[in-house]
Amino acid sequence: MTPPECPICANTAGNRLLSVCEKMNGTLEPFDYAQCPACGHLHLAAPPADMSPYYATGYYSFHSRPIPAWRQWLYRWRTAAALGGGGVSGRLMNRLKPPFYAYWLEHTGLRLGHRVLDVGCGAGNLIRILQVAGLQCTGIDPFLPGDSRTPEGAQLRKADLLDIESSWDAILFNHAFEHVPNPREVLAQAARLLEPGGCIVVRIPLSDSFAFFHYGPNWVQWDAPRHLNLFTRNSFTTLAEQCGLKVETTLEDSSRMQFWGSEEYQRNIFHNSKESYGHNPHQTTFSRRQLRDFDRWSRWLNDMGAGDQATFICRKKPLGSALES
Is 184 in contact with 7 (CB distance < 8 Å)? Predict the structure, then answer.
């Protein structure tokens, strides 16, 4: 197969194919990704005609658990504090132990009552929390069985972003953007749907990372074939600019998973197997010291800008600068 042109920068010179296997479920089905030497972008060269079998009921993002009343109260106060409300008690709780999403939520400028769209929401676990806190949340996912509502009142729709017409204060791609086959069309649509002053939050794995180069085909975030596009910092910034957006904030947020997940793949321990640390952390083969080292190395890589994932917060460029570019 001749490597196709890069979907981000349209480069054709020197593009090469890299072969990796499906390892989340351990089928070891092979797939080829085309890598662009100009911007570093990777994309699946020949996506399956039907992706739905790869998002079967066992796929992690479709798992959901009830949120007990005491935890709803905790989410409400802690999240509201990150949105400029919540009172003294919420701000105090956030100082002691901020919620796992607070580090990017506080950069969005969202306030209570704002409208949020979560693209590729799965079971809606993130927007369930945000809905409890006082945001008006809707989630869309083409692999949902149908339209419904979460117990907290957030709307879930079986839909694609290109079918959406209403406007939003924030549009979230929480580890979903790497799954879309047409990233330029989707990001441009998201930009069109933004309210003035709104933002797009894109959390994605990154292939210009230590873990990618160190582990190669065993890098846990290949996730072939579900990850159709694997961005570099350069290729995502380039795409954002093409869509009239400016990356306002980049938050490096890789975790220990880049190590334990990739180490397990090297040992032929697959992500959905019972032996995986992700499913059975109490019987892991990793020592406590190794896990502490994974955390320490992840923080260091984040500081160096070499971790394997990041959060990008984008806003529309002023009209004049968009025309000039």
Answer: yes
What's the pLDDT tens digit per position in 234-279?
999 999 999 999 999 999 999 999 999 999 999 999 998 889 998 8
Residue 119: burial class (beta carbons within 10 Å; 0-12, 13-18, 19+): buried
Q: Which two tokens stand for residue 189?
A: 């649509």
Report helix, strand or coil for 38: coil
The helix or strand, by DSSP H or E, that contains position 313, with its residue range, turns out to be strand 309-316
pTM of the model: 0.91
CB 80 within 8 A of CB 88: no
Cα dihedral across residues 270, 214, 101, 179: positive or negative: negative
CB atoms closer than 10 angstroms to residue 168: 21
Contact 179, 228 (CB under 8 A): yes
Residue in this structure with the two tokens 């995502």, named with its chain if needed: 236
